[in-house]
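Table S2 (text version). Query chain:
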Amino acid sequence: MSEFLNSLAASPIGVWVGESSGYPLLLVLHSIGLALLVGMLVVIDLCVLGLGAPAMPPGALRNIMRISWSGLLLAVLSGSLLFVVDGNKYYYSFTFRLKLTCIVLGAWLAIALSRHLRQSPVRSAGAAVRIAAAASLLCWLGAIMAGRLMAYVN
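Corresponding structure-token output:
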């Protein structure tokens, strides 16, 4: 695997990201993507937990989810390019794997919540849906924390 990851870093894209203004540009794009993704999902989760607008119309939910998925796409694309430069470091990093686990679980919960909320109003969310919203908040908090810790912890 190390050989493959080294070849990625030596590829033209890896060199561009690592040796030009590509890296800081991708970091900015990654941050914007995460802000869109997590920001919109926090709004939904807080509404489900009763800490936001209880009567969110389905149209608003669709718009918020569209913004979230756009943020996810931007974060995944920019994050993948950032990975190319330091793939060996990240591939073996516990914090990177924790971040990816939190993202996958958070995305799965976002899909489940959006499906539920398309069929039922926010104010009628049962205990299971509220638990899923709280778990979603924890997943995104974990992903952000792990992402920041990647700079300091292996």
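Notes on Table S2: Residues 5 and 129 are 40 Å apart (CA to CA). The mean pLDDT is 87.
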